[in-house]
Amino acid sequence: MDINNINALNTIKQQFTGYMKSLNFNTLRKGQLEAFIHIVSGKDTLVSLPMGHGKTLVSCVSICAQSKMVDILVVVPL
Q1: What is the pTM of this model?
Q2: Which residues make Cβ contacts (< 8 Å) with residue 43, sequence separation at least 6?
Q3: What pLDDT does residue 26 have?
Q4: Which of 18, 27, 68, 76 is the most buried if burial means most Cβ atoms within 10 Å?
């Protein structure tokens, strides 16, 4: 991975962390940052996380980060 990619990933992680704090979340769970990176990179993304593992946080933060309208579907297995 070159230095530009590392800097871009650090910027995205800082952005994600800032949104998390504004939503009163303190820690990341496995898969959340990776999903967010794909989403803000403009890639179609399917995130499969167990119940209680942060699907809502990923969708809320992703909506906050977008400068355009996006479609997000969250399926809750209840």
Answers
A1: 0.63
A2: none
A3: 79
A4: 18
**How far is it, in rounded angstroms, from Cα 24 to Cα 66?**
19
With b meaning 16 or more CB within 10 Å and e meaning fewer, what string describes 7-35?
eeeeebeebbeebbeeeebeebeebbbeb
DSSP state of 52: T
CA dihedral sign, ordered 27, 33, 35, 38? positive
Higher-confidence residue of 48 and 19: namely 48
Q: How far apart are CA 50 and CA 7, in angstroms?
A: 30
CB-side exposure of 69: number of CA atoms within 13 Å?
0
Count of CA atoms in the C-beta half-sphere (13 A) of 7: 3
